[in-house]
Amino acid sequence: xxxxxxxxxxxxxxxxxxxxxxxxxxxxxxxxxxxxxxxxxxxxxxxxxxxxxxxxxxxxxxxxxxxxxxxxxxxxxxxxxxxxxxxxxxxxxxxxxxxxxxxxxxxxxxxxxxxxxxxxxxxxxxxxxxxxxxxxxxxxxxxxxxxxxxxxxxxxxxxxxxxxxxxxxxxxxxxxxxxxxxxx
Length: 184
Known about the structure:
Radius of gyration: 22 Å
Number of strands: 6
Largest sheet: 4 strands, antiparallel
Strand content: 5-15%
Shape: elongated
Order of helices and strands: HEEEEHEEHH
Strand order of the largest sheet: 3-4-6-5
Structural class: alpha+beta
Helix content: 55-70%
């Protein structure tokens, strides 16, 4: 019985972690190295994550400096950033790439909040589906006489508490992201 709730909790943790990961690449008006987590650069025929071929630093709130370890990669890095969905305009001086993060328009911020809310809703649905799967598993165990009715009820209540807790975590992550997006 505990294996059902602990397996469900593990899946719920992963759902929240996945949401945080998805939010990391949502652009806000502030410079952040995590914006480039999903960008891959052609490095001698291999697609390598940008942070494995260059140093990414944030010297100011709205400036990102990318220093490739191999100067020959500057063009490739610029191309990868331009072709990403980040809508950023990198410039280089032959040694480093500088990216100015323009402040987001009110309209764009609202779009990003809407996107974040959709991602959070998908996570809430995932958490509820995990609860349903757990309850189905408990019903099966009850039917097979592997657990008693009391155990099934207790575990089901525990699953509901976990669900409420993780939905609350999803809402908290969303609130933080919303504040970050809306700040000017």
